[in-house]
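Hey, quick one: can you model this chain's 3D structure?
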Amino acid sequence: MIKPGAYIQYRDRVETDPPKSGTDKDGWGERGIVIRSNFWEFFNTGKGQEDAVEFLSEKGHFIVAAARDVKVVNPK
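Sure thing. Here's the predicted structure for all 76 residues.
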């Protein structure tokens, strides 16, 4: 699991992702600080709960992302 305090980058959006919300809160491609590691059931994956991170983006939004979709830029 990715530890709180780690600086991460969320991957860019791909066509199979949920539709864009029309706001800047989607988070794809953004960097931020992990505030919590947890589990989450994501949109139509059929995988049940997966490892996830909640991070505070550089734009000041709280984003939940699958741990598999982020990379650590600076481990903490």
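One thing worth noting: The longest strand covers residues 31-41.
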